[in-house]
Amino acid sequence: MRVRITTSARLHLGFYNFRKGDRVYGSIGVAIDKPVLDVVVEPLEQKRIEVVSSQDIDDVIRRVRQVFDIGAKVYVHNSIPRHVGLGSTTQLALAIGVGISIIAQHRTEIDVYDIAAKLGRGLVSGIGIAAFKYGGFIVDCGRRVYGDRLELPRSASDVPQPIIQHRLPKDWRFIVIVPRTSKPRVSEDRELQMMQPPSNIPETLQYELYATLLLEMLPALWKGDIESFGTALTRIQILTGKFFEPLQGGIFCCRETEAVIKVFNELGVYGYGQSSWGPVAYGLVDIDRSERIFIRCMERLKELGIDVEYATIATPRNDGAKIYLE
């Protein structure tokens, strides 16, 4: 038996809570249909895990080998660009982990959150895990901290769970652009250092984040009001960027991402932002204007001398990862 799992990227839309009591980093995000990850896992007689992949995934495979003591061969056919803010590590780890678990347990009912904890996912955000399991628009509960240290989840109960999951309108689109930049990518070890629980969060900042999510973004989503949703999205992104400005050197991670955001603004997208630590930037548009804005955006970036590593028009993915037994 072979197991094929297909999933795709996620966009992190920002935080609605930095810290309140023992809860930190309440996150907002959305699953999108591109880029796609396609993983096949098949049993191997020898008790070892072999990998066939054109992409360097050694960091993920090391963790997988620590957790699973069975024989399996993993093929990665399509992949999500790594360490650019699209959540590739979580999707890759879960796809491989779920595939191996199905082979080991001979059943498809697998606890994704248990696998996520064992593979060290969900340190700060649960958006990628919920995007894998459910898809759609997601708000998670944030991480619970004990004392003043943020550590890797020890069990499924430590992983941030979704408190809201909702389908996005089929005619909404995200223009996704990864500019090429010389700025070093943020490693997971570095992220652990950077994301230790904050203190002395201004109440006015917390209130503005809560109000934007609860009074603007969610009602707009329920009504399918893309313009109001985009306005709320941009506000949360700016507030999030300002909070992390001392760590990333600006509201956005680098000059190239800031250039993409400025072009989005010029072209009239409904909302925009940077996913995670970047450099990926995204703009929210409707289906009717998506191709026209995408083409003009690529032209403007070329005029500005911004080299693009990856670009696409993505549709919201309103369902979880697909599992096929072959």
List the helices and strands and how they pair.
Layout: E1 3-20, E2 23-43, E3 49-53, H1 58-67, E4 72-78, H2 88-105, H3 112-118, H4 127-133, E5 137-140, E6 143-144, E7 162-166, E8 172-179, H5 188-194, H6 203-223, H7 226-243, H8 245-248, H9 255-267, E9 271-274, E10 281-286, H10 287-303, E11 308-314, E12 322-325
Parallel strand pairs: 3-4
Antiparallel strand pairs: 1-2, 1-12, 2-4, 2-5, 2-6, 5-7, 8-10, 8-11, 9-10
Helix pairs in contact: 6-7, 9-10
Domain GHMP kinase N-terminal: 60-136
Domain GHMP kinase C-terminal: 217-292
Keywords: Glycosyltransferase, Transferase
Largest sheet: 8 strands, mixed
User: What is the CATH top level name of the largest domain?
Assistant: Alpha Beta
Global shape: globular
Count of all domains: 2
Query: For the residues shown, what is the average pLDDT?
Result: 95
CATH architecture of the largest domain: 2-Layer Sandwich
Protein name: Beta-ribofuranosylaminobenzene 5'-phosphate synthase
InterPro entries: GHMP_kinase_C_dom, GHMP_kinase_N_dom, RFAP_synthase, Ribosomal_Su5_D2-typ_SF, Ribsml_uS5_D2-typ_fold_subgr
Enzyme class: transferase
Family: Belongs to the beta-RFA-P synthase family.
